[in-house]
User: Fold these one by one.
Assistant:
Number 1:
Amino acid sequence: MGAVWLWGASDRTQRHLGNKFENNGQDFGAVLVELPLVVIVGVVLPGLVWGLGAWVLTRRERGRGRSEVHG
């Protein structure tokens, strides 16, 4: 939800949605193209960051465990 809110609040998006005098320059193509990408990134990116963090922590624990046992 944060990614969608941030996208919607940006000046660029407001300009495309016609937040000007009498809706001059209104372009719903921005919504049709950008909004699905924002939703996908908002769903995928946190999972990737969490997975990368878990992988790094697992590698660190494995490395420390080996050195204590064999060292």
Number 2:
Amino acid sequence: MATLKLAVTPDKVAKDGSHKIRIALGHKSVTRYIVTRFKIDHLSQFKNGQIVKRPDAAIINTKLRNLLNEYQEKLDSIRCIQMYDCRQLREILINSTTAGHTAATFQAVAGSYITELIEDGRGNYAKLLERNCRYFTEFTKGEFLLSDITPEIIHNYARFLRNTKRVGETTIGMMMSRTRTIINRGVKKQLVKYDVSPFAYYSIKSSPVREVDITIENLLKIKNHLPKEKKLRVARDLFMLSFYLGGINLADLLDVDFRKTDKIEYIRKKARNLKLGEQRIIITIHEDARPIINDWMNRNTGKLDFGYKFTYSNFYRYLTRSLNTLAEELKINQKVVYYSARKTFAQFASELGIPDGVIDYCLGHSDKSKGIIRYYTKVRQKQAEIAINRVIDYVNNPDKYKDYIEMRADVMMMKG
């Protein structure tokens, strides 16, 4: 069990002959010291853990007792002290009690970032980080210093997820990626430095591509269907609206003010605060999208209003179930989720030969293309309008593009 007490080390003498009062931390038969700002002129002024033979002794003893209580409170909050040696405990105590300084533990950095994400409206990602933080804390049996995370710790955490939590390889990859996010955040905030990166010898497996795009035949089934049941109307209309607006995500779609007559303008919630220059997306509203918007738009707020008071998470689940029912009713033999609209738009655009940079702009991805043109928003906006019009025209007139798509597929095969 770790202990704290006030102490003076006789061999540590300042040039003027004074001695600093220290807090002695004892743990696993080892003692480490935390230096305080208080000092005595000679050893006779310190007896049985207190200042004596000084006119200000009572005041200093009170301040020292308060400081000792502060450290004791932090020590008591560490749930599994046996995970640490005496040096590690000392670092946690120092980092967590310095005014204005965040404790350089994995849990503290994760908690700070999670709070920031929630304040920025990115609650879903915050929940994912919180889940990983719980798993990592279960693995380490309590708070764990960032400075003590080594490649071996990372390797053992992956084994813990696989053998103890029994999660799949895809989930392991996601958890390890979130672990790296917290570690990188600690590095960027200069809370920790590594001679060898914890991930130096661990490769995070890429998540498999979600094959949820649908064929043009199945998209036409959804487009041409006019269900009477409200939940199916909501599902059909949101799906098609995402497709018509370049694959916009649901969180962004529900936040759009549609009172502007000809276009929408937004920054993806997922990407907010991640880049120095936030990428604003401007999409011209296609005439096929306007009737859907008019049916559901709240005239006061300009946002889509379906008459439900669900939380976003509950509404997303409601939409997912409704889309599943719609697909069954239409006898669609492919998986259909809201994300299918986004994937299908991207797939059709690619088949039509639309440049990747333009597709990325429509989807709100960072533009990896070269050249100064990527900085001209008006150029990208016009290109996006042309791309969306072409994709929708392809859906409305598939035979018009059949020969071109087949020819382009043959050319791509020959290049491969």
Number 3:
Amino acid sequence: MNTRPVFLVILMRRPVVDPAAVEAHRAFLDALRAEGVLERSGPFADKRGGAYLIHADDLAAAQAIVARDPASTSGGWDVTIHEWQAL
């Protein structure tokens, strides 16, 4: 069981999203999953965005991970990160 803090990353789509960035974002999430960093991910039912849960040592480490996400670097989404104290 992973005991590091959990961070909720929320992505809200902007009006224009590059389809190539979507595919690169999915590949990024697959890599995080393979590393054991990503716990869950998925789109919102209304397709306006999505979210994912990652494990990181602290907020700065979570921000560094998200800064590599093509969804973050492409400018197609508004991204927020919250440390989540889920039970």
